[in-house]
Amino acid sequence: MGMSVKDFLTWCRKHLILVTVATVVLIVAFGYVNVQVLHMTSEPEFCHLCHPAKGFGALAEVDSWEHSGHAEAGVSCLDCHGQPGVFGYMKAKMGGLKDLYFQVTITPEEKRKILENPDEDLVPSLQCLFCHTDEGNKQYREEHKYTMQLVEMRMLDSVKNPEFRMRKGLPDIMEETFVGGSHFDHAFHIESFEMECNNCHFGLIHREQSKTDRMNMCLVCHAENEGSSAPQLADCKACHEAQVAMNEGRGAKGVAGEYSLMYAADIDCEGCHTGAETGQFRPTAETCVVCHEEEYVDIFNDWASETQGQIEELKVLRAHVETELKEADTRKRNTEELWALYQKAIYNLRFVKNDGTSGVHNSEYANMILGSVKTDLNDVLKGLEQAW
Ligand code: HEC
Ligand code: HEC
Ligand code: HEC
Ligand code: HEC
Ligand code: HEC
Ligand code: HEC
Ligand code: HEC
Ligand code: HEC
Fold it and tell me: pLDDT-based confidence at 29, cuts 50/70/90?
């Protein structure tokens, strides 16, 4: 009755091909299920089960991420919380098992306490440099030559610079000094004062951090240091490159403008930024009334809502165009020129966003730039249709 082990082996030997095929199918199916589990447990929705709060700070890590520029650009949890490459990924997954273990063994108070005091080195600068510089990216790739290619489970593993950051419209922060809207030399400051990314970008993603907090950070060394070679507080233009350019109607690629009416009439930065000396850097609509009639508050609000509306619309269009370009790339079409046009458009969009004033510094120029962004993005879409 039945088959002995010996019979079974004999049977297998006779049906070697069938057995091989069946084994391979089983292994692949098992591997597939595991990969699906790995994928599923890497999704923000999964993290949300145990990090469910709204707003900023401990427990609200998914919600704060969702409203960040990184999320908008498709950078997800394990792109920052897990080093590049297959081992980095697996290590992050082991960390996940630790999370699970703690979830069922510690009290909610203990959990909150851990989350409120993240390790200084939780996301080391190396991780950020991988995406935000060419050299950091190249070095890591060379040191992990063999394990980098094994899997591409995340955006992170496919990040190759300069292509990645150029396609996202980002500067190489260790080479370029026009970053965000500021003139700021990362390499000089980081190397001279041995700083880490989180010394300045301490609120990145999960904590609330205002621009005033960031400026005050600079003023530790850039105010009341007489005789220092470092630019001082009153020298707004040394740091605020985008705002100077916007006031002067220049700086966007392929779009030339003119001085704003007020800047042309010799109203300088501190003409409107009257509170800068007392730490009130940001003016409001009320500032307009210092020189104009009450109605100018409405002009301010009109400029702001018009520009904001356009920016929101363009953000959606930009995401759509990027998806279409990537899709065309998977079909091996020649998209080089269209990517270049796309890069120009997002550079200009970021330029207006980084001015940070909804067009108040030069509403005419801001509108011209945003108009050109829309045209460029639509031209990319047209180009994609024609390239068939
Ligand atoms: C089953 C519940 C659970 C899930 C699901 C979960 N976490 Fe956690 N997480 C915790 C707990 C509990 C802690 C605090 C204890 C600890 O440090 O592990 C924590 C801590 C963390 C920390 C702090 C660092 C550390 O290890 O000390 C990070 C980062 C983190 N989680 C990221 C994530 C990410 C990313 C995901 C989704 C891929 C996720 N978590 C999913 C429960 C969970
Ligand atoms: C752009 C990089 C980046 C992304 C993307 C990111 N994080 Fe973080 N995360 C950080 C940094 C940096 C810290 C260190 C603490 C800080 O600065 O708030 C951190 C800290 C944490 C912590 C520790 C507790 C805390 O509140 O500080 C948890 C938990 C966490 N992140 C979960 C997540 C989850 C879940 C996601 C995805 C929904 C995510 N992170 C996406 C960079 C990132
Ligand atoms: C997977 C690649 C990746 C990693 C890792 C990464 N970033 Fe980014 N970062 C991006 C992209 C893409 C953007 C562009 C977002 C956009 O289009 O607005 C960005 C934007 C930024 C900005 C601009 C302002 C903003 O919040 O949108 C800052 C500052 C920044 N990153 C700092 C960091 C720091 C600090 C770290 C490490 C804790 C880090 N990034 C990790 C890809 C990455
Ligand atoms: C001394 C403070 C300081 C340190 C340290 C620092 N940064 Fe920055 N970073 C800034 C300032 C200021 C800006 C410009 C902010 C703005 O105007 O939007 C900036 C902008 C950026 C941007 C946005 C670039 C763009 O054009 O959108 C990225 C990305 C970035 N930093 C990454 C990093 C990384 C990665 C590290 C660590 C290796 C780091 N920074 C360390 C102050 C700092
Ligand atoms: C730890 C002290 C320190 C901090 C913090 C600091 N700086 Fe500096 N910075 C200096 C010194 C010192 C110099 C002078 C360098 C020289 O001699 O040219 C300098 C030079 C500069 C210059 C002029 C040189 C150039 O690149 O054109 C700018 C602009 C500048 N810093 C911007 C910033 C900004 C923006 C921040 C905040 C994000 C900041 N710094 C934070 C110390 C600091
Ligand atoms: C040493 C460099 C430096 C100098 C000098 C400087 N700033 Fe800033 N300022 C910054 C940085 C960095 C930020 C943060 C930018 C960001 O993150 O987008 C900032 C932020 C601001 C903000 C935004 C504040 C908010 O919370 O919304 C205003 C407004 C501003 N600066 C005005 C001025 C004016 C006006 C002057 C001259 C009186 C000046 N700044 C001088 C570096 C500087
Ligand atoms: C006509 C008045 C006016 C003049 C002139 C002016 N600003 Fe502003 N600026 C504003 C107002 C108003 C805001 C806030 C706008 C808002 O909240 O939408 C602002 C915002 C800013 C911000 C914050 C940007 C951000 O990222 O949030 C900076 C930095 C700034 N101005 C720098 C400058 C500099 C540098 C100059 C001189 C080259 C200048 N401004 C000239 C009215 C002015
Ligand atoms: C320090 C004084 C001062 C402040 C503050 C100021 N302006 Fe002006 N503004 C002027 C001057 C001077 C002109 C004249 C330019 C011309 O007509 O040659 C002007 C011109 C204008 C014009 C175009 C001509 C007109 O009169 O309609 C507009 C629009 C305007 N300002 C709006 C604003 C808004 C909005 C604010 C607040 C963000 C503001 N201004 C803040 C001094 C100021």
Answer: low
Distance of alpha carbon 157 from alpha carbon 42, whole angstroms: 14
Local structure of 356: helix, strand or coil: coil
For 251, left (φ over 0), alpha (ψ -120 to 50), or beta? left
- Max avg pLDDT among 12-16, 38-42, 368-372: 368-372
Q: What is the pLDDT of residue 149?
A: 66
Q: What DSSP designation does 183 have?
A: E
Spatial separation of the C-alpha atoms in residues 51 and 37, rounded to whole Å: 19
Task: Residue 211: name the closest of 253, 239, 250, 231 by CA.
Answer: 239
Least confident of 11-25, 184-198, 272-286, 336-350: 11-25
Q: Which of 246, 258, 261, 262 to mutate to test the pocket of ligand 8 (most atoms within 8 A of CB)?
A: 262
CA gap 351, 356 in Å, rounded: 9
**What pTM did the predictor assign?**
0.92
Q: Which residues line ligand 5 (CB under 6 A)?
A: 177, 182-185, 189, 193, 200, 217-218, 220-222, 229-231, 238-239
Coil, strand or helix at 243 = helix
Q: From the CA atom positions of the chain, what is the Rg in Å?
A: 27
Give SS3 for 185.
coil
Q: CA–CA distance from 110 to each of 103, 171, 276 (Å)?
A: 10, 40, 42
Q: How far apart are the CA of 305 and the centre of ligand 8, in A?
A: 18
